[in-house]
Amino acid sequence: MIAYANAKINIGLNITEKRADGYHSLESIFYPYPIYDIIELHPKASGMTSLEITGIDLAPDADNLCLRAYDLLAERYSLPPVHIHLHKQIPFGAGLGGGSSDAAALLKMLNAQCALGLSEKELCAEASRLGADCPFFIINKPMYAIGIGTDLSAVDLDLSEKYIVLIKPNVHVSTAEAYRGVSPRPAEFDLVDSLKLPLQDWKFYIKNDFEDSIFLQYPEIQDVKLFLYEQGAVYASMSGSGSTVYGIFDEPVTLDVPDELGKVYYPLDIG
Ligand SMILES: C[C@@](CO)(OP(=O)(O)O)[C@H](O)COP(=O)(O)OP(=O)(O)OC[C@H]1O[C@@H](n2ccc(N)nc2=O)[C@H](O)[C@@H]1O
Ligand SMILES: Nc1ncnc2c1ncn2[C@@H]1O[C@H](COP(=O)(O)OP(=O)(O)O)[C@@H](O)[C@H]1O
């Protein structure tokens, strides 16, 4: 069985409160983005579950979210050993949720392959034990997220007529570290209402609260945002805790991105 695990971008990210358990309350729009990790799942007749990773350099250790997803279900269900081949293409430490997407893909594949019969709601509950972003990838449609990012409701947002470009600067940002640097505060504007504004007005109302502290620490990420506006983006923002910055354009573009700014990603059409 094979799955294509896509990335996400965050449109707006208000971090409103630090909770007693150390996590933060937030509100954000999670929006699927079409670049993909490719995951093959092969049941084995015997032996141990194994993981092989090709593509972007990532060690296949036991903390890998693919193995953690397998272990999570294996605690409760009788699963055969499997071989997982992850072809990693989504950059990590990037705010694109690639690890969470891989984990969600594994949960869905094991559910189908092993006929576990878990509903979408049950898969989301399992996914939330792997990461706050993970339930979104089970549903994988534009979602308004609150709580720690696991309380999801569908949002009416269709950017399919726009063209979204990503630039991943040459720095990785750790999510936990980014949360430590942020000062929670109530949201200034209602995020769902702001989505209804013309796209050219989003920059005045739709903010990512990580930007202030991350841009101070890594001015090169802010440079990427300025570059995208210079290139004609109607709206640009860092995604999640960074370091990726996306730009939304009215028309398809090909950007000449200097190497020192980072690597550019365009939306893929895999039909
Ligand atoms: C910031 C966001 C925005 O979508 O995405 P990324 O930038 O990572 O893609 C998410 O909140 C990231 O979710 P995810 O990456 O799944 O986080 P987890 O693995 O659950 O948590 C990693 C660490 O981030 C912190 N954390 C995470 C979520 C949250 N609402 N509050 C937190 O404080 C905690 O310190 C936690 O130990
Ligand atoms: N399958 C995986 N893909 C990517 N990262 C993974 C995976 N499994 C574990 N990780 C760890 O999770 C961290 C965050 O990964 P990811 O969710 O892709 O990034 P981001 O926080 O940018 O959304 C990585 O730094 C890596 O150490």
TrEMBL record:
What is any one GO biological process for this UniProt entry?
Answer: terpenoid biosynthetic process
Q: In which pathway does it act?
A: Isoprenoid biosynthesis; isopentenyl diphosphate biosynthesis via DXP pathway; isopentenyl diphosphate from 1-deoxy-D-xylulose 5-phosphate: step 3/6
Name all GHMP kinase C-terminal domain ranges.
Answer: 210-252
Q: Which residues form the active site?
A: K8, D133
In its UniProt record, a GO molecular function of this protein is:
4-(cytidine 5'-diphospho)-2-C-methyl-D-erythritol kinase activity
Positions with a binding annotation for ATP? P91, F92, G93, A94, G95, L96, G97, G98, G99, S100, S101
UniProtKB keywords: ATP-binding, Isoprene biosynthesis, Kinase, Nucleotide-binding, Transferase
Question: Which catalytic reaction applies to this protein?
Answer: 4-CDP-2-C-methyl-D-erythritol + ATP = 4-CDP-2-C-methyl-D-erythritol 2-phosphate + ADP + H(+)
Q: Which residues form the GHMP kinase N-terminal domain?
A: 64-138
> According to the UniProt entry, what is the EC number of this protein?
2.7.1.148
What is the top-level taxon of the source organism?
Answer: Bacteria
One Pfam annotation, family name? GHMP_kinases_C
**What does it do?**
Catalyzes the phosphorylation of the position 2 hydroxy group of 4-diphosphocytidyl-2C-methyl-D-erythritol.
Similarity-based family: Belongs to the GHMP kinase family. IspE subfamily.
According to UniProt, the name of this protein is 4-diphosphocytidyl-2-C-methyl-D-erythritol kinase
Species assigned in the record: Sphingobacterium deserti
